[in-house]
Structure formats: C-alpha cells, structure tokens
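Collaborator request, handled under Task 6.
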Amino acid sequence: MPAPSVTHETDQRILDLAAEHVRRFGASRLTVVAVAKEAGMSHGNVYRYFPSKEALFDAVTEQWLKPVEAACRTIAEAPDPAFDKLERIIISVYRSYRDKLEGDPEIFDLFCRSVEEGRAIARKHRTRLQSEIQRVLDEGTSGGMFDLVDQRRALALVFDAVYRFMSPVAVRLDKDVPRSQMDGRCDRCVRLILRILASGKI
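Structure tokens returned to the collaborator:
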C-alpha cells in the first residue's frame, strides 16, 4: 500500500511523533497506541490517516526521500553539461544516504528495511532516480557527450557500477569505512563511468 500523502497538520504531527519514537525506541518497539497517546488522540484516529504501522513507516521514510529526489531533479534540469550532471546526481544521492546513516540511523534503517522487503516506497524511489539519470543519459547522447549503443545497457551499467554508493543497504554495510575513503572511491567510480559512456563501447 503506498504511503499516504501528508496534507494536513495532524498528519505531520503524527509523522513527527512516529519518527521520534523510532529514534528513541527503534522501529520494532513502535506502537500506534503509543504514538496516538502522545498525539492526544485514539489509535483509531491515527489509523484514519495511516491505515497500518507499515504505512506510517513508509510515510516517515518518504518524508526525507522527497528532498533527495527533488535535488536530483533540480540537477537534471540545470543547464550544465550532461557529464557534470550525472556526476552530481550520483554524488548527491550518495552523500544524502551517508549523511542520513550517520546523523539519523534509525530512520535510515526504515529505508533499508523497505528496500529489503521490496516495498512500494523503495521501488518508486529507485524508479524516480532512474528516470532522472536516464534523462541525463539521453541529453548527453543527443549532445554528443556520450556515445551509447544501447540506452538500457548504459543505465544498467551506471546503477551496477555505483551500487555501493546508491544502494542504502550497501551504504549501511560500509558505515565503519571512513567517510573520506568512501568519498574518494565514489569519485573514482564516477570518473570511470563517464569515460566508458564517452567511449562508444556500451
């Protein structure tokens, strides 16, 4: 079930309280009853806004993913060269994930859980990222910066090559690797991708 859209002040208050409970107690110990009590309402009223605990988790996750997606869209729409935009999108997503992992790990774990369970919120997020990267690949091809034989293979190459930096589960696995090392690895990986995309061999 997709996460409900947050359009009401009450929705936002419930989301804020749910996120705080996840941070304090962990997702496994969150109860709708406890969130409702702190919000000053019945748990039945919470279910009017979010029909299940999983829907509540999805909405909390979606709330911080939206700015990540918006940043990618802004980069893709900018009047910059395609190779620059592709690099910036990949690095933007990676840094957003790593920042969330380091600064808000319990909420980041909700995102990882949605990926591992194949939930709609995770699938939609990946699709939106793919759409922005595909747009940049198309632009780079039409502008002569990329020499692509097969657009689908090129998109798959990008995601395969940067899996370590754009999969939240992989990012979490690297949490004990110093940030400076991972930043350098991401930069080198992106430069390699750009050379391949310009080579006419994909």
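The cover message to the collaborator said: "The chain is about 75% helix and 0% strand. The longest helix spans residues 53-77. Please let us know whether this matches your experimental observations."
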